[in-house]
Amino acid sequence: RFCLLLVLVSLPAMAAGEEIPPALQDSWGDFWLFRFFINAAGYASIVVPGFLLIQYFKRRNYLETGRGICFPVIKSCVFGSEVKSIHQEDGSLPPRSEPTESSTARQVFKLLCCAAGLQASYLTWGVLQERVMTRTYGATETDPGEKFKDSQFLVFMNRILAFTVAGLYCALTKQPRHGAPMYKYSFASLSNILSSWCQYEALKYISFPTQVLAKASKVIPVMMMGKLVSRKSYEYWEYLTAALISVGVSMFLLSSAPNRHVSTVTTFSGVVLLAGYIIFDSFTSNWQDALFTYKMSPVQMMFGVNVFSCLFTVGSLLEQGALLESLRFMARHSEFTAHAVLLSVCSACGQLFIFYTINQFGAAVFTIIMTLRQAFAILLSCLIYGHSVTVVGGLGVAVVFMALFLRVYARSRMKKRSKKLPPGESPVQKV
């Protein structure tokens, strides 16, 4: 309750600072809520017929009565093998091998490569994301240039490359036998593209450092959801770190520089979009956890989700006529083309680095690397794009990252303690 109160207290200050840049007031079609419903209608035009087809095949008991050349495809898409693993770990990455003393140098080298790959991929991705969504292209002395406004096209670019990379990886390496019905990936895919869309759109209304801090504070709604829905219990240090994160985020959001620029104003629209990002992203991770009860690898998950992501986004773009318009924008501005392609490459490579790092070194090391990446991302954004941060705001950022590192340390201590528990005792569930 204390964490929620701090967040709610900061909302009136955010709403008071609501300023919509002139570039966003060109037409009604530029309003983010209108675009959101238009995109959702496009996705519904694919989801609803698909849902009706799935119900039709299930009612017909197609698995027993179906025949013909389409039977394997329909069986895979609608029914799958329906064989689940007993433990979730069976469907995730193979057990992580512990490094031996003789391979210490090799493990250190791998760790450095993973850290460098993650930092390079996601720091570049963050810088390009802010460049694409907040700056103009083709500006001259007489022409102010034009902004790229269609976030959905950027989501499509990211997903089509991720789909290609995951497909090639699955084709060239041995993967577990796939058992999940393909249509189940569509739920995670839909929430994933909506969370990505909210993430891109939010940069039109809030600064990149604010967005990064909001991502870092996702642990708060996750704990609230676990407490209310799943009746989970948490340790005292989890409440402490959640409170520290709330305090740090509130300090950053409520701090105001004397010469704030329009691009750094935290607006109410940006807060709503960030809330949408957190909600959709939380659903994506929880649904993917449920899908891992089938025997599959993370790369297979990446492939299945991105198949539907490409289908949803390209369908919606074609229905709106936005695909051709975005391609014409790419033809007019070669710089944007390079940025969009590099953005997609960084996103796809970053996902592969995530899988490999967790497989080799575990989630704790990965969390530390990504937490450092968030801190570096804020620093880079302030240096490159001139975001001003007050002393109070900087102190808030420090509090947030101190809480995140404290969380990683406490969790690792709890895991070591749980290994020493007598049989029959189980540690308290944690997030």
TrEMBL record:
- What Gene Ontology terms describe where this protein resides (cellular component)? endoplasmic reticulum membrane; Golgi membrane
- SUPFAM superfamilies with a match to the protein in the record: Multidrug resistance efflux transporter EmrE
User: What is the superkingdom listed in this entry's lineage?
Assistant: Eukaryota
- Family assignment from sequence similarity: Belongs to the nucleotide-sugar transporter family. SLC35B subfamily.
Pfam families per the UniProt record, alphabetical:
UAA (PF08449)
| Major localisation | membrane
Q: Where in the cell is it found?
A: Membrane
* Taxonomic lineage from the root: Eukaryota, Metazoa, Chordata, Craniata, Vertebrata
A molecular function (GO) held by this record is: 3'-phosphoadenosine 5'-phosphosulfate transmembrane transporter activity
Q: Which InterPro entries match?
A: EmrE-like, SCL35B1-4/HUT1
- Residues spanning the signal sequence: 1-17
Sorted UniProt keywords: Membrane, Signal, Transmembrane, Transmembrane helix, Transport
Q: What is this protein called?
A: Adenosine 3'-phospho 5'-phosphosulfate transporter 1
Which species is listed as the source? Answer: Centropus unirufus
Topology in the lipid bilayer is annotated as: Multi-pass membrane protein
For this UniProt entry, which segments traverse the membrane? 31-54, 236-255, 261-280, 301-318, 338-356, 363-386, 392-410
